[in-house]
Write a structure and sequence with these properties.
Layout (H helix, E strand, L loop, with lengths): L2 H10 L4 H9 L1 H5 L5 H11 L7 H15 L2 E6 L8 E7 L2 H15 L4 E8 L1 H10 L4 E3 L5 H11 L4 E5 L7 H12 L3 E5 L23 E4 L2 H10 L8 E3 L13 H12 L6 E6 L16 H17 L6 E6 L7 H5 L11 E5 L6 H7 L2 E4 L4 H4 L7 E4 L7 H8 L2 H9 L3 E4 L2 H11 L11 H15 L2
Parallel strand pairs: 2-3, 2-5, 5-6, 6-7, 7-8, 9-10, 9-12, 10-11, 12-13, 13-14
Antiparallel strand pairs: 1-3, 1-4
Helix pairs in contact: 4-5, 6-7, 6-19, 11-14, 12-18
């Protein structure tokens, strides 16, 4: 559609062209945070190049969806705090970072060294924030986000900023490129809460313009080695190992009740052996053109074949729970795989997507598998073995793993207790036979370890 005609048509029916353009450009990400079928269909219609939504669709769906996706600012000020207490700015976009950030916010709320918290959130984090923190006040003055946050910092100075990882379009860019110069922040820190790669802003190719980062937080020595590989110029002494920053969200004390409740909801026998397949998201920000575009679907199909072979010798029955990545715009296709494949009599497939909680399906399982999910590293800390599905077929998980880690790091993964790497479906069958007979012990976190991670981080940023 010619640009002039598109502008006339847009103005005629009352749409803001920039809003429509934003939805078109980011439709995959927006679809990733929507569960309602009607809302998903509306975004698909809006994103069609030749199809403009009618006014009813836009008023009912478009503006509300856009509002949930956009970056939001929330603020919380304490009535009482120490004389020299600091005001802290945090950012979050995706489920991984929000799992860590929400625990940090809760700790800051109860720490007398913190007098206020400002949160910049978008995407899935923006969707969840209000429910988690209802006492925070939403800031919206009809300016740009940058304009609003500058005004917030003028009203009450921000002392410390903590930016987290996002894949694309995350709010951390505002902090990493301008917290000190635009907001007057004294210290800026970066939170690397997983085991992937510093994404989003770090992949723009202009890191030399980024303001100095006073410290980076990560989970363990392996995560620190990833940072050393990806950011070799950054001083190693400024990378702080705090422990698993998302661990307070594991709810280990509820593991047994989650297991019983989720198995009951899904109709899974207590004696069945359960494999949790976690979908991945290979898009946005990394050069992954060599990967098969159907990597997740083909990997699940090969995994079902492997589990089918394993099920022949399992008298208690075997179940695969399929949980797509929460931001996968094609999640319905992954969930439908089980309906298209003939299964052995003692193997069945269940859908484990929302509204089932992640902890629910994790503790309902006996082993967790994915191509390259952070939960592969977290699973042993929950007391569950995990498997990287690094199938060596062209464009599948083996290529993805080698793109993410060099050979030295892959060998380190092999040495982590409770984690295996399957290079083929036959290898996965063998791994399942082994882990089904050898319960994983001694890897679970305890309460002290969980709380110490967040506490160690806060002690550093509030100095």
């Amino acid at each position: 559609m010619p640009e002039q005609f598109e502008k006339i048509r847009t103005e005629k029916i009352g749409f803001r062209a920039d809003e429509i353009s934003f939805i078109k450009k980011n439709s995959n990400e927006i679809l990733g945070i929507l569960d309602d079928p009607e809302e998903r269909e509306a975004v698909k219609r809006i994103s069609e190049e030749t199809l403009f939504p009618d006014d009813d669709v836009w008023q009912k769906m478009g503006r509300g969806i856009l509002e949930r996706f956009e970056t939001k600012i929330f603020e919380f000020e304490k009535k009482e705090a120490d004389k020299n207490a600091k005001r802290v700015l945090v950012t979050s976009d995706n489920p991984g970072s929000f799992g860590a950030i929400k625990n940090i916010i809760r700790a800051l709320e109860n720490d007398s060294r913190c007098k206020g918290i400002v949160a910049l959130v978008s995407g899935v984090a923006g969707k969840q924030f209000t429910g988690e923190f209802p006492i925070f006040k939403k800031i919206h003055e009809e300016r740009t986000v940058l304009g609003d946050i500058i005004e917030v910092s003028k009203n009450e100075p921000i002392d410390v900023a903590l930016a987290s990882v996002s894949v694309k379009n995350g709010p951390e860019g505002l902090v990493l490129f301008g917290a000190k110069s635009n907001l007057g922040v004294s210290k800026t820190f970066f939170l690397f809460e997983g085991y992937g790669t510093p994404g989003g802003t770090f992949l723009l190719g202009n890191n030399e313009r980024m303001e100095s980062i006073d410290g980076i937080f990560c989970n363990d020595e392996f995560a620190k080695k990833i940072l050393g590989q990806r950011m070799p110029e950054y001083p190693q002494e400024k990378i702080h190992i705090c422990g698993v920053l998302s661990s307070e969200g594991f709810e280990l004390e509820k593991a047994e009740s989650y297991r019983e409740e989720t198995r009951r909801k899904l109709g899974i026998d207590s004696n069945a052996f359960v494999v949790l397949y976690l979908g991945d998201l290979f898009s946005d920000g990394k050069d992954e053109g060599f990967l098969d575009p159907d990597i997740d679907i083909k990997t699940l199909e090969k995994t079902i074949l492997a589990v089918s072979q394993f099920s022949h010798n399992n008298v208690g029955g075997v179940v695969i729970i399929v949980r797509p990545h929460p931001r996968d715009p094609q999640k319905e296709n992954l969930l439908a795989i089980g309906e298209k494949i003939a299964l052995p009599e003692n193997l069945s497939i269940r859908k484990g997507a929302s509204p089932l909680s992640f902890n629910g399906v994790a503790y309902a399982s006996d082993v967790i598998v994915s191509i390259q999910g952070t939960e592969n590293f977290f699973a042993p800390l929950r007391g569950k073995p995990s498997v990287f599905l690094a199938y060596n077929d062209l464009g599948l998980g083996g290529d993805a793993l080698r793109q993410a880690y060099d050979e030295a790091l892959i060998e380190e993964i092999r040495q982590i207790r409770g984690i295996s790497i399957a290079s083929s479906s036959e290898a996965l069958t063998g791994i399942l036979e082994k882990v089904s007979k050898e319960p994983l012990v001694g890897t679970k976190l305890d309460t002290k370890q969980m709380h110490s991670a967040t506490g160690a981080l806060i002690d550093i940023i509030l100095v």
